[in-house]
Amino acid sequence: MAEKDPIKVCVTGAAGQIAYSLLYQVAKGQVFGDDQPIILTLLDIPPMMPVLQGVVMELDDCAFSLLREVIPTSDEAVAFKDIDAAMLVGAMPRREGMERKDLLAANVKIFKSQGKSLDANAKKTVKVVVVGNPANTNALICKKYAPSIPAENFSCLTRLDQNRAKAQIAGRVGVTIDSVKNVIIWGNHSSTQFPDVSHGTVSVKGTAVPVSEAVKDDNWIKNEFIKTVQQRGAAVIKARKLSSAMSAAKATGDHMRDWFKGTPQGEYTSMGIVSDGSYGIEAGLVYSFPVTIDKSGKYTIVQGLEVDTFAREKMDATANELKQEMTTALEVCSD
Ligand SMILES: NC(=O)C1=CN([C@@H]2O[C@H](COP(=O)(O)OP(=O)(O)OC[C@H]3O[C@@H](n4cnc5c(N)ncnc54)[C@H](O)[C@@H]3O)[C@@H](O)[C@H]2O)C=CC1
Ligand SMILES: O=C([O-])CC(=O)C(=O)O
């Protein structure tokens, strides 16, 4: 069979810690498919160019069969030229004691500039995932400054939260990770996010049962579980003195793979997307919803899930935080 044409993929923050794990997955074919040749563009800031050269040397030395070309640069226009996919990782990470929104003033302007440059340089079909924090609001700003690219092409990463939630449930029940399905992350990638297992299932001895039936401890689900997932990033920072990188890279790969290839039959996944008003969430906010994705890469918000009073309160609290972040971000970007 004839070889596919290469796709062009940009990773920003390419000299940083998440990129170091992410680039391996992308170049190895674990994200876009093991028959999909890749051209990589790698963006970082000028002082990081010597470090980035080292990353390029290592990419060469990996001898990846699918990697056709690597373009390291500190110029957004070069990095975004005709790209099919953008993984916007480059931004300052938080340190111990900070909330992710404390990064807003420092990071949001990066996404204003990159939104403008994507608008001018990327393919109009480009799929963008924002990883740099505060991820939802950075994605909102990026989209705002790229008006010629459809809003549904912008997303932010909440897959790491979903993976964390699945791991907690699998560990608690004592099953493998793939036995846990349809765990949802609603809202902001922050400590107000709502990890919701009320529509999820666990496969126990070959039969799918509701998570609550498998866990048999609603108090744990409503308290410790939610808090553990909400605070997991902070716990990793406390332990490592650096924020999550291997797991963040894995989640970014998972997010993009599902977006390009589709979600498995009967399963949904969570991603931060521009709200269309579903579930009463203000249209325009970048909010994490459960979605299914078809083989052509089009996602649809899962509709009709029952929302009880407990869930409603949590979904609204995280939406309110996002509204406040949006107001601050628009102020920061107005000059
Ligand atoms: N959404 C999520 O689930 C997660 C998000 N993060 C966030 O991802 C971001 C990156 O984290 P790390 O890789 O650990 O940080 P890092 O500090 O190791 O790397 C960040 C890289 O971005 C570069 N950079 C800064 N400004 C840039 C710009 N304007 N254009 C291109 N590159 C730029 C830096 O020079 C650095 O090389 C942070 O904001 C972190 O908080 C981290 C984990 C999970
Ligand atoms: O917590 C942080 O600052 C990094 C991050 O977003 C995560 O690990 O989820």
Automatic annotation (TrEMBL):
EC main group: oxidoreductase
SUPFAM superfamilies: LDH C-terminal domain-like, NAD(P)-binding Rossmann-fold domains
EC number: 1.1.1.37
Keywords: NAD, Oxidoreductase, Tricarboxylic acid cycle
Reactions accelerated catalytically: (S)-malate + NAD(+) = oxaloacetate + NADH + H(+)
GO biological process terms held by the UniProt record: malate metabolic process; tricarboxylic acid cycle
Gene3D superfamilies listed in its UniProt record: Lactate dehydrogenase/glycoside hydrolase, family 4, C-terminal, NAD(P)-binding Rossmann-like Domain
PROSITE patterns (alphabetical): MDH
Entry GO MF terms: L-malate dehydrogenase (NAD+) activity
InterPro entries the record matches: L-lactate/malate_DH, Lactate/malate_DH_C, Lactate/malate_DH_N, Lactate_DH/Glyco_Ohase_4_C, Malate_DH_AS, Malate_DH_NAD-dep_euk, Malate_DH_type2, NAD(P)-bd_dom_sf
PANTHER family: MALATE DEHYDROGENASE
Protein family per UniProt: Belongs to the LDH/MDH superfamily. MDH type 2 family.
HAMAP family: Malate_dehydrog_2 (MF_01517)
Protein name: Malate dehydrogenase
Species: Owenia fusiformis (Polychaete worm)
